[in-house]
Amino acid sequence: MGISKQLPNFSYISLLALSFSFYCTITPTSSTSLQHDFIECIHRNTNVDFPLEKTFFTPARNVSIFSEVLESTAQNLRFLTNSMPKPGFIFTPVHESHVQASIICSKKLRIHLRVRSGGHDYEGLSYVSEIEKPFILLDLSKLRQINVNIKDNNAWVQAGATVGELYYRIAEKSKVHGFPAGLCSSLGIGGHITGGAYGSLMRKFGLAGDNVLDAKIVDANGKLLDRSSMGEDMFWAISGGGGASFGVILAWKIKLVPVSKTVTVFTVTKTLEQDATRILSKWQEVADKLVEELFIRVIFNVAGSLGNKTVTTSYNTLFLGDKDALMKVMKRSFPELGLTRKDCVEMSWIESIVYIAGFPSGTPTNVLLQGKSPFPKINFKAKSDFVKNPIPELGLIGMFKKLLKEDSPTMMWTPYGGMMARISESQIPFPHREGVIFKIQYITVWPDSDKRPIRHIKWIRDLYKFMTPYVSSNPRQAYVNYRDLDLGKNKKNASSNLKNARVWGRQYFKNNFNRLVRIKSKVDPENFFRHEQSIPPLLI
Ligand SMILES: Cc1cc2nc3c(=O)[nH]c(=O)nc-3n(C[C@H](O)[C@H](O)[C@H](O)COP(=O)(O)OP(=O)(O)OC[C@H]3O[C@@H](n4cnc5c(N)ncnc54)[C@H](O)[C@@H]3O)c2cc1C
Ligand SMILES: *[C@@H]1O[C@H](CO)[C@@H](O)[C@H](O)[C@H]1NC(C)=O
Ligand SMILES: *[C@@H]1O[C@H](CO)[C@@H](O)[C@H](O)[C@H]1NC(C)=O
Ligand SMILES: *[C@@H]1O[C@H](CO)[C@@H](O)[C@H](O)[C@H]1NC(C)=O
């Protein structure tokens, strides 16, 4: 080959080499240099020191400690397998200014960042990115202060605190104050409230997102804002528009609500053989119309062994009042359940939190300070639906048949009505209000030893398809806190991602999606805060 032919080749290769080495100097290749640059940058951008040993975790330094921190609050084992991408390092800030510096530095160093409060995200979005590499994890678990002010009827809660800790700190100061957030004690305040957040007080007081007064947030420029400096648009967006789209919430100021000194709980279980279908039909007629002090959810499981399986339906209940009052209400509105006085237990509101969260009876309430749930972690996939007309018996029978085919299926039906129906669809981004009788959550779980996890995901997609005629449509509504990456899915094609976003956007937020997109374009036009289902900025 002649020189003239070699030359272009040669220069092409050296250009490649040059651009490669250039690439290497601006984009750190190992997590160690990545961490090094980040730490230096954090130092330059905050004047509050941080103990490196206790705030930075990399696989290079000690892989077992790194894994321990990564797994600490991650709830879904599906996203912790070896094949799942891992963060380059984990930073657990101990001061609010460290969060500001983190935003400034990850922007400057062009490192994608995920933020985690309680780690309950259904699709692992708070600790795994399957779309960007490398990424780092900003874990807020060390920012968990709670200041309850009974006199002014409010509290400031930092993002890393769990709802269980919040409930405990409220009850410590007053037996007649409470807060309407989630049922599971380990939920992180930071991520939880961003999706609305419901619990057993929702029929009386609405969602946690309906009861927030103020927030502290770090925006895409690393600025610390409160409600008045962020403005009402952004405050609206963060109180239900989903996590990690608008900024990092440092703390919420919440409004306390009154609870009665004595509440009553019960759980009554009916199998298919015990007339479960007929009783469930009746529940669908009354669930959203009962007095607002009464919250009866239904938990479905499969019991028995091969050839002898049945579906169990458990009516898991909180009543704000005493046993006598509850018995009267039940006789009048839902006698089909056959509730007896023996089934009922009177207790304080904080004890009912421990009961509804699923701890064994008699567990002391200070278990809530451990920030844990009573259940072991497992692999799971879940989906949600909203029901506006009672599901006919034929539908229920078909649904039971599907449940009986899966290893470990669960469903939870949550009653609406009451305060939920009185708040307008656009009050906060969470739009599932008047006309909803109940919400369905479908779950399937499997152990690590399962050789074919895809089987379970296929099963739940099939059940979801089967339920189509019985649930809301156009859009088929879904709960953003039950994040589901199946919705509007077409991951491979980036240019149609916006189209896909319109699909899940309407499902989670109905008409509020458009306003969320407008606010996103204003407060984070460069899309710094992004993940598989973050609110997209307008394409101009
Ligand atoms: C076992 C279990 C029980 C549940 N029970 C209920 C229930 O009773 N009621 C209910 O409403 N929901 C419930 N959920 C759903 C729960 O509300 C959501 O998963 C919620 O997002 C969890 O918040 P987190 O902080 O724990 O999760 P994370 O995984 O830490 O965060 C969830 C999302 O929010 C983002 N995020 C986290 N922290 C912040 C922050 N400080 N600022 C901005 N974005 C942030 C994350 O990046 C992620 O996208 C339950 C979930 C599980 C796994
Ligand atoms: C990692 O940390 C654990 C727990 O502190 C310790 O036992 C182990 O020896 C460490 N491993 C290395 C390689 O430093
Ligand atoms: C299974 O069958 C046995 C015998 O008929 C019965 O006693 C038992 O209650 C059944 N279990 C379930 C969960 O239905
Ligand atoms: C991706 O989606 C866009 C818009 O829907 C479409 O025009 C394009 O052909 C798609 N590309 C691929 C590779 O499928």
UniProtKB/TrEMBL annotation:
A GO MF label: oxidoreductase activity
FAD-binding PCMH-type domain location: 83-259
Domain of life, per lineage: Eukaryota
Required cofactor(s): FAD
Localization of this protein: Secreted, Cell wall
Keywords (A to Z) from UniProt: Cell wall, Disulfide bond, FAD, Flavoprotein, Glycoprotein, Nucleotide-binding, Oxidoreductase, Secreted, Signal
Gene3D superfamilies attached to this UniProt entry: 3.30.465.10, 3.40.462.20, Uridine Diphospho-n-acetylenolpyruvylglucosamine Reductase, domain 2
InterPro entries the UniProt entry points to: BBE (IPR012951), FAD-bd_PCMH (IPR016166), FAD-bd_PCMH-like_sf (IPR036318), FAD-bd_PCMH_sub1 (IPR016167), FAD-bd_PCMH_sub2 (IPR016169), Oxid_FAD_bind_N (IPR006094)
Family, per entry: Belongs to the oxygen-dependent FAD-linked oxidoreductase family.
The protein's name: FAD-binding PCMH-type domain-containing protein
Species name: Eutrema salsugineum
Lineage, opening ranks: Eukaryota, Viridiplantae, Streptophyta, Embryophyta, Tracheophyta
